[in-house]
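User: Fold this; tokens only.

Assistant: Input:
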Amino acid sequence: MSRNNHCRHRLLILSTFFVMILSPETRAQWYGDPTINNAVCIAPKMQSAPVVCTDGSGGAIIAWEDTRGTSKDIYAQHFNSYGAPQWTQNGVLICGAPGDVQNLVIFSDGSGGAFLIWADIRAGAGEHDIYAQRINSSGTSLWTANGVPVCTARWRQRWISAHPDGTGGIFIAWQDERGNDFDIYAQRINGSGAALWTADGIPVCTATDVQKYPKLCPDGSGGIIIAWSDERGVESDIYAQRISGSGTVQWTANGIPVSTAPEHQWIAEICDDGSGGALIVWTDRRYISTNGTDIYAQRIDGSGSSLWAASGIPICAASGDQAGARVHGDGIGGMFIIFHENGTGLIAQRVNPSGTLLWSTNGVRVCTASGGQADHRFCNDGSGGIIITWQDGRGDWDIYAQRISGNGSIQWAATGTPVCTATGFQDNPSICADGSGGAIIAWWDDRGSTIDIYASAIRSSGSLVPVELSAFSATAAAGNVVLRWETVAELNNRGFEIQRRSETDGVWQKIGFVDGRGNGNTGGTYAFTDRQSGEVKPHPLLFYRLRQIDFDGSFTYSPVVRVEAVGRTQATILLDPYPNPGTAYVFIPFTLTHERPLTIRFCNMAGRMVLSVCESAVFAGGSHALMVPTARLAPGTYFVTLSTGLWRQTKKVTIVR
């Protein structure tokens, strides 16, 4: 599918009644056109697997795997809340060690920087080890160059899961092959990059056969709870373990069973319940022969006891296949769950701490468009709901998003809001909350000759721009013009400069300023009355626009609206100067219907100003006659021009001696 490309400038997105206006003067910021977006990295070769976390100030830190060098390395970039990149163009190098990296994950460090954890093969083929790095808000690596070793035990360590420890460090768990099969290990790194537990990690589960795909969450007491897929039995089951902050196993050695139902259970996801326990979700094949794969869940308390039905409760047991669940806590002991239905559509569900499904029986459909939705991620919106992003197949492959309220109501278009619809394929989206009800989304993008990294911000309203207008109008009323406009959402909005021009004068004039709502998010209604419009009777069309200005000085122009000034009373009348010819002085007579600022100038026959009588001086309504001494004027003929910014009148006068 082909799409038009536009100049890379920020847009104001308005209702379908208005045309989008582009400003060539706009500074770097989040672009409002889903065919443009913000380039994070367009370096040579391929950039992929982006991950994103909040910077704690409305912006985001984005990291990715990058092949511009001789191997696959790690780079990162910081975008502030306005969408301006803060670090070196195309990112700063985080790890350039020999060998490729993989499994990159990122978390905010709570101080404006980030933790990055990954596996790489710098030790040689087949030796996947775990490394970590911490970067500050300036993009400086705070630990050993190319990362501190988390685990360099023999063979492969991968499938990383991590979470900040709440005291400046981070917990890390992984799938480990140092034994005869895959096991689960974990480590804790402090804020200085030092390992706090046994070198190369502590064993979480070394039971027979394979344990894989670990996921962890905090336990609320300085430790963690880890869940994984476990093949110690006949089929794959779900097990879990709790580890204290000092690295001590808290439950039965090798973990407690979460679900040992018939057939396979695998790919566990986990979040804390806010009460020392955890909520665990997985894909379940217990009814595969009659119903396909389903989504099940369990809640366990701090002692490892199951709080819901044995082997879990069904989150969705509809016919067909449900899989690929992802979870986030809802902040009040329950959780949100997003999963695939039949490999295409996305379904959302919310569960309370008692295991009750709060939305429709089999969940809420995230997007009603055909073509399929895949590779989804989501975050909390800060208002009790969630924002979901995904790769969308309705065209080529694009990036879309949706917001769902806490009660399960779809907040944006039923088919989702387009985040990126540029040419080529877009894939692998990552998301973080912006702290103002919206989110920042990054993805890999092949709109160019190679695969690059792009990003965009989406506001709580579903708009891609900080200030979204839903209406803007101009109406003639009682000899004036009344401007009215409405915003759907506002972020960092200092206010609106009102500008006007006449039908014959192409120069825009500032006529007022209206303060914005700052970070109102919910939008607002505005009005401004132009009380100088009556002067333009000779030019009956007036044109208006808004210059929306952010706190950082960035700005965007609105569409232009116009109004006819038919039937207005001429507000300013310039009469013939006298005496004419004049000698030592000349009078400039004029009449005003109301108080207004005026500029009066003498210009020679070539149009060059030779004398300024007044510049925007305010005169009261009524008749006036200014006496102008002519000693500074050489004998000759001059144009006397009276202007008010919109309208200009000119008379001739001759000076003699």
